[in-house]
Design goal:
403 residues, alpha/beta, FAD/NAD(P)-binding domain, 5-stranded parallel β-sheet, globular, binds flavin-adenine dinucleotide
């Protein structure tokens, strides 16, 4: 069974490592960047307890390596920019393990190192052509460090090429992401907070929200969001230092101690802010007629409100590996069966996570009220969903036996 993975990001790297141990499988992971060129260096990530649990169950050695590059994500605190605490959750009260917080670039480094030589860098895909023999296989033409190469008769193609997936656009048509009407910026800077910022926290001024936490090696990751008209570009005025100060300062002008430090930071002219808009792509796990599995953001680009993008790429990879290991151990090497079982394992779970992430974005939208919205997040219905989010990570019971 020949498997090609396009993209060595979060999902692709985990699959490249995990598939290498499956008997009868030959795996090639083609990544377009050069070795050591870790994209998204300017971002931090929090990975949920569900990602940690999934990795501990599937690849405990990899879990230990990520943990070594991370700080524990133990709590989730919400307050106003003025300093009034609205919520404080201990993750240990909801899940048996805590989450991780680390630099995105570090996560890539650890995952790519762990996948080793299975990842081929500096690869540009020039064509993916389905075979005409009805097998669903594909031929791939690409260049590797400028040298033309081919990978023919690929039984399974895993599209792990991220939110703007070239493969999904080719085989499934334009992604048509849905804009939700929220502008977002992010930054990663050395920690000069003097202990003010540590674990995961959010601060609201109306629906405008800052989020921040400390990551190794003593840096602060922060992001800020505020409502914009749905579908519109972020108004230039809101990107100015004056605009940002206005958006995040309460009407009475009084900022708490953390709020003052945060607003000074985001309005510091020497600090680089990276801008984007919150959006969600329609869920799509596989192709029919051609053997393509979409994995991670290429399948489920979601709003980042609950920090589930990379977390779900990890969960999906672990679930796909569990399915493939079980089916191959039972002598089943039927690509259609693999695709069908992985899709059944992930479809409802991903739908739930995407919908819950959108639901939790209520306080970020125009007219959102952080006081009542956060109070709702402390009540049993939201807490039950949070428990489902952090704990229901595996392949559903009975699915592998049925397959
Ligand atoms: C600002 C921001 C903050 C975020 N915060 C969090 C968070 O706190 N927690 C969380 O869980 N998630 C977070 N996410 C989401 C998370 O980073 C993504 O969901 C995650 O990286 C998706 O993993 P992936 O494997 O699908 O794709 P990616 O990690 O994006 O990897 C895709 C890979 O494919 C490669 N590639 C793309 N096209 C090609 C091609 N044609 N040929 C070869 N290679 C190709 C790319 O170079 C890349 O290496 C955040 C995202 C953003 C933008």
């Amino acid at each position: 069974m020949k498997i090609a993975i396009i993209g060595a990001g979060v999902g692709g790297s985990i699959m490249a490592r995990g598939l290498a141990d499956v008997p009868g499988v030959e795996v090639h992971c083609l990544e377009r960047i050069a070795p050591g060129d870790h994209a998204e260096a300017g971002t931090g990530l929090n990975l949920g307890p569900n990602a940690v649990q999934a990795l501990l169950a599937t690849d405990p050695d990899l879990a230990r390596r990520i943990e070594a590059a991370s700080f524990a994500w133990s709590s989730w605190r919400v307050s106003t920019m003025g300093g009034q605490e609205l919520m404080k959750l201990a993750l240990k009260d909801i899940a048996p393990v805590e989450g991780w917080r680390l630099r995105w670039a570090e996560l890539y480094r650890v995952l790519r190192e762990a996948a080793g030589a299975r990842i081929r860098y500096s690869c540009d895909i020039t064509a993916v052509t389905p075979k005409t023999d009805g097998t669903g296989r594909v031929d791939i033409a690409f260049t590797e460090a400028g040298v033309a190469r081919t990978l023919d008769d690929v039984d399974l193609l895993i599209a792990a090429d991220g939110r703007f997936s070239q493969l999904r656009a080719q085989f499934h048509g334009p992604i048509n992401a849905r804009q939700v009407g929220v502008g977002i910026f992010r930054l990663l800077v050395p920690n000069t907070s003097g202990g003010l910022i540590e674990d995961y926290e959010q601060w609201f001024n109306g629906p405008a929200r800052l989020l921040g936490y400390r990551v190794p090696e003593d840096s602060i990751y922060m992001s800020g969001t505020f409502p914009i008209p749905v579908g519109a570009e972020i108004p230039e005025e809101m990107k100015t230092r004056e605009g940002l100060r206005r958006i995040f300062t309460p009407a009475d002008g009084i900022l708490g101690e953390q709020g003052r430090w945060l607003v000074d930071l985001i309005t510091d002219p020497t600090v680089d802010l990276h801008w984007a808009r919150l959006q969600e792509s329609p869920l799509c796990l596989r192709e029919t007629g051609v053997n393509i599995l979409y994995l991670g953001d290429s399948s489920n680009g979601m709003v980042p409100t609950l920090g589930q993008g990379a977390t779900q790429a990890i969960e999906s990879s672990c679930a796909a590996l569990e399915v493939i290991r079980a089916l191959s151990a039972a002598g089943q090497y039927d690509t259609e069966l693999w695709l069908e079982t992985i899709t059944r394992a992930r479809q409802d779970r991903l739908r739930f996570v995407m919908d819950f992430s959108m639901e939790a974005s209520d306080t970020l939208l125009a007219g959102g009220d952080p006081i009542s919205g956060t109070a709702k997040k402390t009540e049993p219905p939201f807490q039950a969903k949070l428990s489902q989010l952090y704990n229901d990570f595996g392949v559903p019971d009975g699915l592998l036996q049925e397959a």
